[in-house]
Design a protein that fits this description.
single chain; about 130 residues; alpha+beta; Nucleoside Triphosphate Pyrophosphohydrolase; four-stranded mixed beta sheet; 2 helices; globular; NUDIX_hydrolase_dom
Length: about 130
């Protein structure tokens, strides 16, 4: 039986590179985002997570759904699937690692292997669309 982890991700690309975050104590990089709290909508959760991790405010009317990706969850038992709903948006403020985030870096496609399984799918999709 499959178990699903429902997550939101923020795709922000600059110069054909995607913003990636490294949590304190981790070795795998992730596309910024996270899980909903209580009855948050996608947009509420995305805005909160981006602010908590990247120290910026998403501009609500600029949010666009990018797509949904599913893969085996990194460091979870076989059959635990992460379902990542991805959004793009503009923001105000300066990108700065915050909260549990140790570092932020812009990754080219060549650094795809440093990320989680579901992020590999997103990297591939972005590359196929000429965005990375």
């Amino acid at each position: 039986m499959k178990t699903y982890i429902d997550k939101l991700a923020y795709i922000y690309i600059q110069d054909k590179k995607i913003i990636m975050s490294l949590s304190k104590g981790k070795t795998t990089w992730y596309i910024p985002g996270g899980k909903r709290e209580n009855s948050e909508s996608d947009l509420e959760a995305l805005s909160r997570e981006v602010n908590e991790e990247l120290s910026v405010q998403i501009i609500p009317n600029s949010i666009k759904k990018y797509g949904v990706f599913e893969a085996q969850a990194h460091e979870h038992p076989e059959g635990t699937i992460v379902r990542m709903t991805c959004y793009t948006a503009e923001f105000t403020g300066d990108l700065t690692a915050a909260s549990e985030i140790e570092k932020l870096e812009f990754f080219p496609y060549s650094r795809r292997s440093e990320s989680s399984f579901v992020d590999h799918l997103i990297f591939d999709d972005l590359k196929n669309k000429g965005l990375l």
